[in-house]
């Protein structure tokens, strides 16, 4: 029996966001905009592909090192498994794992 159910009692299996492929992500921010739980944030990336840190919304260019931005899962435990982020991602770069497969 499925431990997860909808309001009408139908079985449902949450799919938790566990990772985002930084080589595929274009940093568009669509997933961030639909996530009500702040599971992921934009991070700056330099020319060498090294992650510089979280972009805080100010004009932070990391001392001129900023080349691009990617989305990074930095609070995976907040994910409720709704799948909204996967539905809006144009690059299909996210990894989701069924709730019954995620280690406690």
Automatic annotation (TrEMBL):
Domain 4Fe-4S ferredoxin-type: residue ranges: 16-45, 69-99
Biological source species: Mesorhizobium waimense
Coiled-coil intervals: none
Protein name in the entry: Ferredoxin III
Entry keyword set: 4Fe-4S, Electron transport, Iron, Iron-sulfur, Metal-binding, Nitrogen fixation, Repeat, Transport
Swiss-Prot/TrEMBL cofactor(s): [4Fe-4S] cluster
Lineage, opening ranks: Bacteria, Pseudomonadati, Pseudomonadota, Alphaproteobacteria, Hyphomicrobiales
InterPro entries reported for this sequence: 4Fe4S_Fe-S-bd, 4Fe4S_Fe_S_CS, FdIII_4_nif, Fe-S_Ferredoxin
Keyword Amino-acid biosynthesis: no
Pfam family membership, one: Fer4_7
Molecular-function GO terms, alphabetical: 4 iron, 4 sulfur cluster binding; metal ion binding
Record bears the keyword Transport: yes
Its job: Ferredoxins are iron-sulfur proteins that transfer electrons in a wide variety of metabolic reactions.
């Amino acid at each position: 029996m499925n431990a997860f159910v909808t309001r009408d009692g139908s079985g449902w299996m949450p799919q938790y966001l566990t990772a985002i492929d930084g080589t595929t992500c274009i940093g568009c921010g669509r997933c961030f905009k639909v996530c009500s739980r702040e599971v992921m944030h934009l991070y700056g990336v330099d020319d060498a592909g090294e992650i510089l840190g979280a972009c805080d919304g100010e004009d932070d260019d990391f001392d001129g090192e900023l080349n691009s931005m990617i989305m990074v899962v930095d609070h995976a435990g907040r994910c409720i498994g709704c799948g909204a982020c996967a539905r809006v991602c144009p690059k299909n770069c996210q990894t989701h794992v069924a709730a019954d497969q995620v280690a406690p």
